[in-house]
Amino acid sequence: MIISKKVLRNVTLTAHPLGCRQYVQNQIDWVREHARKTNDALYRPVTSDALPKRVLILGGSTGYGLSTRIVTAFAGGADTINVSFEREPSETKTATPGWYNTMAFEKKAKEAGLAAESVFGDAFSDETKARTATLIRKTLQKVDLVVYSLASPLRTDPATGVTYRSVLKPIGEAFTALSVDMDSPVVKQATIEAAEGSQAEETVKVMGGEDWALWIEHLLKEDLLAPNAMTVAYSYIGPKVTYPVYREGTIGMAKEHLEKSAKAITKNLEKINGKAFVSVNKALVTRASAVIPVVPLYMALLYQVMKEKGLHEGCTEQIYRLFTDRLYADKRVPTDDEGRIRLDDWEMREDVQAEIDERWTLQHEGEPLQKGDLEGVRQEYDQIHGFGFPSVDYTLDIDPRVI
């Protein structure tokens, strides 16, 4: 079949296997090049013995999780296991981007002599945790690093069987601000209604740190964590303009819970001399962030400003910097006063945010976006679904089951 991009309410419903393969290959190429590069002012080279060798990534098929898998494997020579929830392809339907990314990555990793396996299933369930433990014992014996990079619309609590749903809403009152859609450069007003009833608490149950803690407890109980093992989860704070919908909203409550959980998990890891961290990363295009009102406009301005300053990073660059500059650079991991790793340091630089604030004042409802890179945001969104790569012939009749 000829696979084309299908979009419904700003959400892309299809993925292209050859494009996803290219997306993974581009990241592998960048990591391999920079691991050896000695004359880059922003990124330091790395020797493979500095990085962990056995890595479990919960949510390792897209975004920051996929980049973590690529960096640890192709800069550090790590054997990896991914846990993610995917839809497989059929003769007439494409898979999720994560399924194609995983197939492409695992083929390349195995060609490089690395172990690379996946557990496809509900990462929140006891059954998936048990299957993963069995696979770790069989392929890695123990793990040196556990990365928690899950995002989900719902979670069933394995202890009670109750299903909770996450929402991205402000708390207290509706939030109205300027925004843009991915398919139109015209600035508009967007309103998000406030969370109701138990929506905030449910979002914490889904996107907070409870499941992260359960994973670590399970791995400890099964004796699958190596001495000095670390675990890291990914978070976001962002600028004040997004606070009502993000940091001070339902997702922000969940992220605060995630950050507090790191301290409790670290205490739990004392017996193996391990540690838990939260890494606060920069704003990037994901399948979720692209449809949050206000966020695409902020990202269009952020991308343009950071590109002009030579500071723009995608997932790969961010995670490469996390491993080479933070987690495995020195004996002591640098953190802020709250114990968080701040990979959003370039995004939150005073000069970057001042320039974004200045450009925000140029935006007016009903007028085209001014001094922003909506095209760059749109291209990145297309590419995470396997579209928009010049090297891929999208007129080819291909089997969606083959990558």
SSE layout:
Blueprint: E1 7-8, E2 11-12, H1 17-36, E3 54-58, H2 63-74, E4 79-84, H3 97-111, E5 116-120, H4 126-139, E6 143-148, E7 154-156, E8 163-165, E9 175-181, E10 184-192, H5 199-207, H6 210-221, E11 225-235, H7 250-268, E12 275-280, H8 295-308, H9 315-327, E13 341-342, H10 350-360, H11 374-383
Structure, described:
There is one protein chain. With 403 residues, the chain is α/β, with parallel strands linked by helices. It has a single domain, classed as NAD(P)-binding Rossmann-like Domain (Rossmann fold, 3-Layer(aba) Sandwich). 37% of the residues lie in helices and 17% in strands. The protein has a seven-stranded parallel beta sheet, sandwiched between helices. Strands 1-2 form a two-stranded antiparallel ribbon. Strand 11, helix 7 and strand 12 form a beta-alpha-beta unit.
